[in-house]
Structures are given as C-alpha cells and as structure tokens.
Amino acid sequence: MSALLEVDALHVELPGRGGYVTVVEELSYSVEPATVFGIAGESGSGKTMSTLALLGLLPRGAHVGGRARFGGTNLLGLGPRALRAVRGRQIAMVFQDPMTALHPMMNVGRQLTEHVRRHLGLPKREALERAKSLLEDVRIPDPEGALTSFPHQFSGGMRQRIAIAAALACEPRLLIADEPTTALDVTVQAGILRLLDDLRRERDLSVILITHDLGVMSSIADRVAVMYAGRVVEAGARDEVLKRPRHPYTAALLRALPQPKTSKATPLVTIPGAPPSVEAVPAGCSFHPRCGYAVASCAHELPPLVRDGERIFACPVDPFAA
Amino acid sequence: MSLLELQDVEVTYERRGRDPVRAVAGVNLTVEPGRIVGLVGESGCGKSTLARAVTGLVPTSAGRILFEGNEVSALTRRARPRELVRLQMVFQNPYASLNPRRRIGAQLAEAVAASGVGRDAGRRRIAELLEVVGLPAAAADRYPHQFSGGQRQRIAVARALAVDPSVIVLDEPLSSLDASAQAQLANVLVELAHTLQIGLLLISHDLAIVRYAADEIYVMYLGRVVEVGSADATWAEPLHPYTEALIAAVPEADGEGLLPAALPGEVPDPARPPSGCRFHPRCPYRFDRCVEDEPPLLRLDDGRAAACWLHDRDRVPVSPGAKAPAAAGGLP
To answer: Does A219 touch chain B (CB under 8 A)?
Structure first.
C-alpha cells in the first residue's frame, strides 16, 4: 500500500523580531489511506505549523524546506493557484473553534453549497441535496431544518459537526483536524471522535489529528508522532508508543496524566520547568534540561532518530530499562 | 462554622421578551478550611455562574451565601467590602487577568500592599508567594508574556494568595493548560490547601483532573447538583447516571484504541428544563417516575448524595432498566 501523504525532512522558519526562528525541523512521516495519524505535543511544539506549511497557509515571509508528496505532486513546490485547488478539494481542515471556519451571517445551507458549487461546479439544487446528505453523514438531527439555520443556533458540538460537513463537502482524501475537540465537553468530544472514526471507514478518509491530549490520540489514531520543540522525538504505532514509550518525554507526558484506574493517593508526576520558547531552544537534545535521564552528552549532542522496527525515537536512554 | 456556605442559592438571568433562565436552581454547598471542593459539570450547567455568584460578580435571586459568617451580596459601584477581601477568585484565562505591560513583581506588590505589608517586608513576601507556586524569585522582574500559560496561571494564584485569603474560588484554572502544566498546578493547589489551610472551590469540566486535586466533588447538571461525595468514591463508583456518563466519556491514553462512550442528545435549554428529572431525556436508566417527579438530592451512606430515583430506598419496583448504575455496567 502506498502512502497518501509522505512528508520528508520538513523544515519551517518564521520571521521573528530578532531574525528567523526555526519552528519545525527534520520532520518526516507518512499517512496511509483511511488511517488516522496523530501528532501530539504541547503548545509551541510546532505541530500546527507543520501542517499549515503543507497547505501554504503559513504567515507571510515563512521559509519552508523539505518535500511533501501527496498523490504524485510535491505540495511544497506548488504555486498559490495550484495550492488553492488542493485546499478544500483534496485536503481539508477543521480547527479547534468551528466558528473560524463558519460564516456567522450565512446560513448553513449556503455555506455547505458554496464549496461544492465552486470546486465541483454543481447546480444549486443538486448542491443543496448534497449538503443535506452531508449533514446526515455528520449526524445532525433534522438536516433539512439545519440548512436554513445559522451557526449561532447550534451548540458547540453541533457547530463542529457542521464544520466537518463543510470540510467533507468536496470529498477530500485527507482531513487535517487541529485540536477538533479541545473546546468541547468530554461527552460531546466522545461523539466527535466516534464520528471521525466512522468517517474514516465510510469514506476512506485519511486524517491527521493534531492534539495535546494523549487520551484523544489514543482513542482514534493508528500511528502517532510526539513532537517537542519543533522535532519529532518519537513516532510509531499507537499501542507501541503509548504502552511502552521509548523517549523520556513521551513517558513523562503519560505520567503527568491523571490515571483513571489508580487511586488519587499518588500525586501527579510533573515534568519540571516549561517547554522552551522557539527563540531559545536548548542546545543538544532540546528536552535535556527537563529530563530525568539526561547525561552529560545530552547538553551538546543532538541524539539522532533511530529506528527499531516500526518505531523511531531520538534518545539513547530507554526510560523503562534505566 | 464553615468558611463558605451556600444555602439554596439560585441565580436567574432575566431576558427581555423571553423566559428567564434559572442558571443555578437551588444549590447547597460548603467549603471547610484546608479542603478542596471540586465543582464539575459541562457547558451550561451553571458552574461558572455559581462561581461568579459566590464572589459577588452576579446577584443571586434566592438563597444565601455566607463567607466567614458574613453575607456575600452582589458587587455595587462601591468598593468591595473589607470582610470579603479574604475571599479571592482566579479566572480561566491567565492572559486576561494579568497586566501585560507591568512586571510580575509590581502586580504582586500592589496586592501585597493591599494587605497592609510595608515595602521591604513586601519584597520578601513576593519572593515567598512565588516560591509557594513553584516559581523562582527572579520571576518578579519579568513580564507576563515571558511565561508559559501554566506559569501565568500560577502567578494568578500567587496574586490571589497575596491578601492571605481563607477561600479561593478557581474557575476552570486548569482547562487551557497542557498536561504537564495541568499536573503542576493541580499539585500546587493541593499543597496550598494542606499547608496554608485555605479552602478551595475548584470549578472545572474535567472530572479526571479534578478528582486528583479535590477532596470532595459536586457534580452539576442544568443548574442543579446531582451528586455529592468524596472524590475517590465518586470516581470509583458514581451514583448518578450523569456522573457515570461523564467518567465513561474520558478518553484513556492507554494505547488500546478504544473510543470513549458518547452521551446521546444535547444539554436542554435551561430556560425550559425537562419535566421531572432534568437528565431523564438522556438517561439510559430512566423509568416512569423520572419523567414526572424531580428527584431531590437523596442523602446516602458515607456522606454521599445523589439526585436520582434509583437510589430512593422506598422506590416501587419498576421497569427492567432500573437497577443501580454501578451494577449495570457502562452506558450503551
């Protein structure tokens, strides 16, 4: 099976006050058809920037290097016109706040038909029929009535479903979901995760799921990557990485989570300090100042990503063996 | 006497030309020294409205709120009464509650001065406050933007501590934070309550993290408290079907790839709550009585309480769905 998307050595620099700062470095991964690829990391780890780079949505002046092969073309080599044809049509995005994607003054029907009329050139009546079936697909109760309603008339969870319907309108092959459930209540989040999982199967859709929540990632991702300070520190199959992390950062993130099955008597294990800002990424392994397993060489040598079967990780120390 | 006591508190929002919304519909709650009370529920349950009522930011429409024996009344244009200074609040967004153009030290100094401490003693006090929340004394010389979200939230807690409060109300202090920052703040809060004997009212939609910090948990749904109990017991064996659904919806980072259970339906319009039990349209265990009678908060063993007819000892045997939720296993 050939990958739908192959990102190779992606590098992103953004203009800052004191010159360019690197926000994504040496990022490589591939997304297989009809699978969910999870990218996890804390705020500022570069997870969002790395996907915006694929779609040419970075702030003006950004430097992007590397390759991103999607269906035979290198996305990073496309001009603005060609990228516009890819965006929305073949690769769509949903964000944390659905209102960033929905127009507050336009009814749902018009928002959903605009896409298909522009990209696929469907006549209005057909476009409306299609919009209705999209709303059914994302389990909106009363899709007919929803077409003439406005976004503010829906709850946060329903709005996110409508944003997903809009993203799916042109039957993209890849959906990039950036923290799609972060602003939602847990019971509503569970519904959206189930929906994404169903859609991937029903529509042969691949999903890149960006999240800071390892619980969310664990519930629907097939393969996962953990980012820290712009780099992947560990990646592999979901169960391998989450059940037995090989990088101390992944292990520490997991330990910091409330554990549902244990008593609360043991306090949460915290990671000392805070993630570095992009202007001041530590030399060597960028995690070393916060790492419980750091040795002298970690402060000046960048550990290379090594492969062990399906998994890659960038640390010479095994947090479980140590 | 409890530090903070809520008696049948109601908050009603009047709306022009539309039905009023009873956002908080009769809540009783107490906070004791050195204890952390978690108040948990989802959007629209009234927990933030309750937090605002407790600190006088919105007026109550019925009931009483007593802080150290003094009645809390809604703020007016006059200064906040002196006897309420020791009741402090920390908000969800630390970006909005700190002045971006002033050094942390200056912002803390103002709060320290308000408690009547002189300048030199004040400097020592600032260093002390920062240490309590796990930040170096040098943090005083920096600006809010030089800190991460989690650190900023701890600075907001330090500022609340400056006036030597006896109760702090925290509205969603953890929800905008990454896991490691969340754990750091949760541990700081536990430490605070225990060493300084402060009572904390911790409001959050995230039961998984609250049960780590809190001693006692109140679960709210649509303006009412539906369950009260110790954090461990509530988490291990929820009594109310809504609490059970909240726990089942938490995704676990165990690598198993299991989808969390979704709760069917939506939170109803609080202006027109359902008849009987407010949760009945979404409850997998509902029976006839739930549709007609609203269950009161029934006192049960071990200081626990639940507003659910399943726990009514005098209940008549009813439909097959009506067994105790703990024995019935997970939601469909």
So the answer is: yes
* Average pLDDT of span A10-34: 94
Residue A107, pLDDT score: 94
Looking at residue B279, what DSSP letter applies?
A: T
DSSP single-letter state for residue B309: G
Task: Enumerate residue ranges in chain B where pLDDT < 70.
Answer: 314-332
**Which positions in chain A touch B47 (Cβ < 8 Å)?**
none
pLDDT for A322: 58
Burial, B195: exposed, middle or buried (Cβ in 10 Å; 0-12, 13-18, 19+)? exposed
> Under DSSP, is residue B256 helix (H, G, I), strand (E, B) or coil?
coil
For an interface test with B, the pick among A155, A270, A278 (most B C-beta atoms closer than 10 Å) comes out as A270
Using H for helix, E for strand and C for coil, what is the string for chain A? CCCCEEEEEEEEEEEECCEEEEEEEEEEEEECCCCEEEEECCCCCCHHHHHHHHCCCCCCCCEEEEEEEECCEEHHHCCHHHHHHHECCCEEEECCCHHHCCCCCCCHHHHHHHHHHHHHCCCHHHHHHHHHHHHHHCCCCCHHHHHCCCHHHCCHHHHHHHHHHHHHCCCCCEEEEECCCCCCCHHHHHHHHHHHHHHHHHHCCEEEEEECCHHHHHHHCCEEEEEECCEEEEEEEHHHHHHCCCCHHHHHHHHCCCCCCCCCCCCCCCCCCCCCCHHHCCCCCCCHHHCCCCCHHHHCCCCCCEEECCEEECCCCCCCCC
Q: Looking at the complex, report in whole angstroms how far the Cα of residue A85 sits from the nearest Cα belonging to chain B.
A: 34
Interior/surface letters A197-216, b for 16+ CB within 10 angstroms, e for the rest: bebbeeeebbbbbbbbbbbb
Which residue type occupies B316? Answer: V
Percent of the residues in chain A that have a pLDDT greater than 70, as a whole number: 98
Q: How far apart are CA A142 and CA A296, in angstroms?
A: 62
Distance CA B236, CA B209 (A): 14
Whether A219 sits inside 8 A of B181 (CB atoms) is no
Q: Which residues contact B90 (CB under 8 A, 6 or more apart)?
A: B97, B153, B156, B157, B160, B168, B169, B170, B171, B173
With a pLDDT cut of 90, the percent of chain A lying above it is 75
Per-residue pLDDT, B314: 65
Asked if the ipTM is above 0.85, the reply is yes
Residue A21: both structure tokens together:
């700062």
Q: How far is it, in rounded angstroms, from Cα B306 to Cα B226?
A: 6
- Quote the CA–CA distance of B57 and B46 in Å, as a whole number: 14
**Token reading at A146:** 């929803």
Nearest to B149 among A43, A155, A242 (CB): A43
A266 pLDDT band, cuts 50/70/90, is: confident
Q: Look at residue B327 and give its three-state secondary structure.
A: helix
Q: What CA–CA distance (Å, rounded) separates A203 from B325?
A: 37
H/E element holding B73?
Answer: none
Answer yes or no: do B184 and A270 touch at CB < 8 A. yes
Phi, psi of A95 (to 5 degrees): -115, 175
pTM, rounded to two decimals: 0.90
The pair of three-digit structure tokens given for residue A119, joined into one six-digit string: 């990209």
d(CA B154, CA B172): 13
